[in-house]
Every structure is written in structure tokens, then in C-alpha cells.
Prior knowledge:
- The chain has one domain: 5'-nuclease (Rossmann fold), CATH 3.40.50.
- The protein contains six helices and five strands.
- It has helices at about 15-20, 25-35, 45-55, 60-70, 95-105, 130-140, and strands at about 10, 40, 75-80, 110, 130.
- α1 (about 15-20) crosses α2 and α3 packs antiparallel against α4 (about 60-70).
- It is globular and about 40 Å long.
Amino acid sequence: MQKVNKLIVVLDTNILLVSISSRSKYHWLYQALLNNEFQIAISPEILLEYEEKISEHWNNDVALNVSRSLTELHNVLLINVYYNLNLITADLDDNKFVDCAFAANADYIVTQDHHFNVVKNVEFPRIPIMDIHQFKQALGY
């Protein structure tokens, strides 16, 4: 068994949403996930939100297919979260991504959501935030 030294990231729901369609200019991200180019950390709560939002945006079949893929891919880490850091006060729902990143010791949270900017100013725990363009560069695209 070889050691895996890939980036571990938490994807905000909107980042995943814009990457799923093969017609999206951000589809490279979903393809990179499927091609095992990085690891993604998700909690059961994040997976439920992904399913809900994908179902709203497309339909239940697409949501189930993406959800099934996420539970079967070897580069998807299912993380149980035991701490609620509550670092984001503007949108409490966003804290699930921060808590998952902390529990997974993730390298980054990938998001375009400005609510996460407050996390950049927190000294502990240090959870780096990057946008989709920075992530593309980090992957070498």
C-alpha cells in the first residue's frame, strides 16, 4: 500500500455544485476529484447538504449519483465531527465545513463564500481558505 500525500480539502457546497456539470468551466474540479488528484473531507451533515442542494439544482437522480460516488471514492474521507468551533457567526450553517476541516486536519477549505473570510483571522485553529482559482493553481492546472 502506497502512502497518499494529496491535498485534503473541504469543498463548500456551491463549489461542488458549479463543478458537476460537464458544461461548466469548473468541471475540471469534479474530474480531478474523480481522478483521485486530491482528497476531499466530508461529514455526514455536509453529504446531506450536498444531496439536498444538488437535488434542488438538478434532480434526485443526479443527487443520488453524486452522493453514491462520494461514498465510494477512495479519496473521499468521511469525517465524524466531535467539536463545534462556531467560528462563523454570519451564517451558522457554514460552520459544518469549518468543523469538518478542523476534524480532518484539512489543508484548505475551498469556497467563494465571503462568510468564511472571518476564519482567515483566527489564529487557532489555523484553517486556510482558498477560492476555486487558487485551488486550480494548487493542483497545477
